[in-house]
């Protein structure tokens, strides 16, 4: 049994992490929720009771086996090395460590053995990358993907608690006929689609888009080209992605469906005759990456289109981190002797 800390425990992902640990019956002897010092002493709900929040900081990790971090990149840059130096293994949800060559970046369905190289910190990929790669990996193994063109339709919860509160507030303002106030997003997000997530970088793409490129190379294959467009939409929970792949080998559509049907972490939901395809609302609170609308692309020699939806707070963040913890346990991690 392990002592597990959740850092950023009062946030959107932290809350989901605690729920996911509970749902999956992770072998926990003590849950240690942590947040900013001002929140120390607050309570979080866990297994029918309440657990007090500890201030994250120097000395806080001395009794921790695994620390699941979801407190943002600034906090992770400072706190993850402290936690690792105090003997905890960090699974970090932020972008802080993902591209560090000494830090494994892991999707358990895609590159589970990468965890073996960790030196105290393991990174959880970006939510959009995770669901894209869970769906692409079985097709890459069978047909060798050369290029991915992806457009995302990302929920506001990807921006955390403040972003969710802004969409809810704008819905209330609209219903009451009030002026709609904008602060978290660059435009009104209610009834809108904004092609801008994170900051713009020199090549005209956004940082969110470039994360999908670089993380795909690190996790799955540096030879796969990725052409991304990331869009925020007025949805609370669940990212959707339109994915077009071009492969080296010819794709047999029926076989591709069979491969996805048995792929770990994937749920095929694809029968247009019965209007069966995934939407964000269908996937709310679910663990799987849902795939539908599979069609061969007749405009290229070997191509396929698909629609991929997953709960960004669950597989896109909390579940993937907890699965990395499960991998560590499976690979023989011993609880520390204090
Ligand atoms: N939401 C997603 O879909 C998603 C997916 C993948 C990865 N992530 C990543 O996960 C991280 C958290 O995201 P979120 O959506 O949960 O954001 P959030 O709702 O804003 O939650 C962040 C939590 O961390 C706390 N925090 C901030 N600084 C801290 C510190 N120094 N020590 C301890 N706690 C601290 C915050 O407290 P205050 O609010 O009081 O500052 C808040 O409770 C981000 O790096 C994000 O990029 C999110």
TrEMBL record:
Gene3D superfamilies per record: Dihydrodipicolinate Reductase, domain 2, NAD(P)-binding Rossmann-like Domain
Signal peptide: none
Keywords tagged on the record: Amino-acid biosynthesis, Diaminopimelate biosynthesis, Lysine biosynthesis, Methionine biosynthesis, NADP, Oxidoreductase, Threonine biosynthesis
Keyword Oxidoreductase among record annotations: yes
EC code: 1.2.1.11
Listed GO biological process terms: diaminopimelate biosynthetic process; isoleucine biosynthetic process; lysine biosynthetic process via diaminopimelate; methionine biosynthetic process; threonine biosynthetic process
Pfam families (alphabetical): Semialdhyde_dh, Semialdhyde_dhC
Pathway: Amino-acid biosynthesis; L-methionine biosynthesis via de novo pathway; L-homoserine from L-aspartate: step 2/3; Amino-acid biosynthesis; L-threonine biosynthesis; L-threonine from L-aspartate: step 2/5
UniProt-listed InterPro entries: Asp_semialdehyde_DH, Asp_semialdehyde_DH_beta, NAD(P)-bd_dom_sf, Semialdehyde_DH_NAD-bd, Semialdhyde_DH_dimer_dom
Cited CDD domains: ASADH_C_bac_euk_like, VcASADH2_like_N
SUPFAM superfamilies, alphabetized: Glyceraldehyde-3-phosphate dehydrogenase-like, C-terminal domain, NAD(P)-binding Rossmann-fold domains
Reactions this protein catalyses: L-aspartate 4-semialdehyde + phosphate + NADP(+) = 4-phospho-L-aspartate + NADPH + H(+)
Ranges of residues in domain Semialdehyde dehydrogenase NAD-binding: 3-118
PANTHER family attached to this UniProt entry: ASPARTATE-SEMIALDEHYDE DEHYDROGENASE, DEHYDROGENASE, PUTATIVE-RELATED
UniProt family annotation: Belongs to the aspartate-semialdehyde dehydrogenase family.
Subunit record text: Homodimer.
HAMAP family (UniProt xref): ASADH (MF_02121)
Protein name, per record: aspartate-semialdehyde dehydrogenase
Organism: bioreactor metagenome
């Amino acid at each position: 049994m392990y002592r597990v800390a959740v850092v950023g425990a009062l946030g959107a992902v932290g809350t989901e992490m605690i729920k996911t640990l509970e749902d999956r019956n992770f072998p926990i002897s003590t849950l240690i929720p942590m947040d900013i010092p001002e929140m120390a002493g607050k309570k979080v709900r866990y297994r029918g009771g309440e657990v007090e929040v500890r201030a994250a900081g120097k000395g806080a990790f001395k009794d921790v086996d695994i620390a699941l971090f979801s407190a943002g990149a600034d906090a992770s840059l400072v706190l993850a090395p402290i936690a690792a130096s105090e003997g905890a293994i960090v699974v970090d949800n932020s972008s802080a460590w993902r591209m560090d060559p000494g830090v494994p970046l892991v999707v358990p369905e895609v590159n589970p053995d990468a965890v073996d190289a960790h030196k105290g910190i393991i990174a959880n990929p970006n939510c959009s990358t995770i669901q894209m790669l869970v769906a692409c990996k079985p097709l890459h193994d069978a047909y060798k993907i050369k290029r991915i063109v992806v457009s995302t339709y990302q929920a506001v919860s990807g921006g955390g608690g403040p972003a969710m509160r802004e969409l809810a507030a704008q819905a209330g303002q609209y219903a009451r006929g009030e002026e709609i106030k904008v602060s978290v997003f660059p435009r009104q997000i209610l009834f809108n689609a904004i092609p801008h997530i994170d900051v713009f970088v020199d090549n005209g793409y956004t940082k969110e888009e470039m994360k999908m490129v670089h993380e795909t190379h690190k996790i799955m294959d540096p030879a796969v080209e990725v052409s991304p467009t990331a869009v925020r939409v007025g949805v609370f929970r669940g990212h959707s992605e339109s994915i077009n792949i071009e492969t080296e080998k010819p794709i047999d559509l029926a076989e591709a469906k069979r491969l996805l049907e048995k792929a770990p972490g994937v749920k095929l939901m694809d029968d247009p005759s019965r209007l069966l395809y995934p939407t964000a609302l269908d996937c709310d609170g679910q663990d799987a990456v849902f795939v539908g609308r599979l069609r061969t692309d007749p405009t290229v020699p070997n191509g396929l289109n698909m629609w991929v939806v997953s709960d960004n707070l669950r597989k896109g963040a909390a579940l993937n981190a907890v699965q990395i913890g499960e991998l560590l346990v499976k690979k023989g991690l011993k609880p520390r002797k204090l």
